[in-house]
């Protein structure tokens, strides 16, 4: 009579253990992904809720300032970089960025 084998598991036991580990890993990673997606969706909805409504009017352009001395190209590049940083930070939207950039380039 064959008794139960002690020690390392056989081929079937190893396959069963691997299947259990793989199934558990899949279930855990799926749960984590669902939780992350739910948090991202909630955060996006919250940001959209507090976002200012889009402006439906065009602001009047301010009166032109007296002629100032022309800015150097280094100064212009620095100002354009600053505008880019403000846009990336979310302070300026695309339209505001384009208007400010056009204004800087027109002054050149």
**How many separate helices?**
3
Strand content: under 5%
For the residues shown, what is the average pLDDT?
A: 77
Radius of gyration: 31 Å
Contiguous runs where pLDDT drops below 50 for at least 5 residues: none
* Helical/strand content category: mainly alpha
Order of helices and strands: HHH
List the helices and strands and how they pair.
Elements: H1 11-50, H2 73-88, H3 94-107
What are the defining features of this structure?
single chain; 108 residues; mainly alpha; 3 helices
Explain the overall architecture.
With about 110 residues, this protein is mostly helical. The protein has 3 helices and no strands. It is elongated, with a radius of gyration of 31 Å. The mean pLDDT is about 75.
Short précis:
This protein has helices at 11-50, 73-88, 94-107.
């Amino acid at each position: 009579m064959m008794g139960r084998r002690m020690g390392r598991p056989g081929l079937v036991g190893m396959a069963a253990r691997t299947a259990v580990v793989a199934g558990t890993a899949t279930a855990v990673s799926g749960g984590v992904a669902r939780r992350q997606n739910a948090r991202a969706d909630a955060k996006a909805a919250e940001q959209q809720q507090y976002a200012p409504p889009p402006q439906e009017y065009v602001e009047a352009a301010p009166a032109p300032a007296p002629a100032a001395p022309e800015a150097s190209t280094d100064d212009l590049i620095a100002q354009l970089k600053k505008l880019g940083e403000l846009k990336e930070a979310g302070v300026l939207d695309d339209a505001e960025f384009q208007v400010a950039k056009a204004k800087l380039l027109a002054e050149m």
